[in-house]
Write a structure and sequence with these properties.
By secondary structure, the protein is mostly helical. About 75% of the residues lie in helices and about 0% in strands. The chain folds into two domains: about 70 residues, no CATH class; about 110 residues.
Length: about 220
């Protein structure tokens, strides 16, 4: 009888533990604001509702809510039927997301500094951020970095590195990298092919290592 009671109590205890584990964790209020206002933007409301949604997301971003930062960055940078493209409004959100190691934002930040979109032109800063984004595995950043480096003398180490990045971007199905490479691929000297192949192997390892050290970053 005692053993039966012990078994019953143990069974009830196990059920209680299981029910505790199944209780939903309270959702972050900032996540709720993000989800609701994302839905509002997708619904294509009138201008007043759009500005309300953008304002709520901006408040979220001011509290360091990363998804809101990225959504505002992409919304203003790319533009849409409901929100016009606005580089000046996009820039602070893109910069914030880039500083969080978000690869898409890192490439966008580099592009904006290269072409002076919403900020001052700075070729050196752009090159640095293209390199960071490319090393994080962002295909378009690889294409952009390759484009810049292959504009330098054909036998220079920069040109060799640029070719390697363009090959990597093509492997990852980036159309810009593929088209850029087609412009001069047939003209690559035979003696440079091995140098490019060796560097390709090194870059692949570097990218894998970097991504393993940044588990929170996404390559969107």
């Amino acid at each position: 009888m005692i053993k039966l009671l012990q078994f019953v109590f143990f069974f009830i205890f196990c059920l209680s533990v299981a029910s505790w584990g199944q209780q939903a964790t309270p959702e972050n209020p900032q996540d709720i604001v993000y989800r609701e206002n994302l839905a509002t933007l997708k619904a294509k409301p009138d201008a007043t509702e759009i500005e309300k949604a953008l304002s709520a997301l901006a408040d979220n971003a001011a509290k360091a809510h990363a998804p809101s930062e990225l959504l505002l960055a992409q919304t203003f940078y790319l533009g849409s039927k409901v929100v016009p493209q606005d580089y000046k409004r996009a820039f602070p959100y893109i910069k914030a997301a880039a500083l969080r190691n978000q690869p898409w934002a890192m490439n966008a930040f580099a592009s904006m500094t290269e072409f002076g979109q919403g900020t001052e032109m700075d070729d050196g800063l752009a090159l640095s951020w293209y390199r960071l984004a490319a090393t994080s595995g962002q295909p378009r950043a690889m294409a952009n970095l390759g484009r810049i480096l292959t504009s330098r003398p054909a036998n220079s180490q920069d040109h060799i590195e640029g070719c390697a990045w363009l090959y990597l971007s093509r492997e990852l199905k980036d159309g810009v990298g593929s088209r850029t490479l087609q412009l001069f691929e047939a003209k690559i000297p035979a003696e440079n092919v091995r140098r490019i192949d060796d560097l390709l192997k090194e870059l692949r390892k570097r990218i894998n290592t970097t991504n393993s050290l940044q588990p929170g970053s996404t390559n969107e």
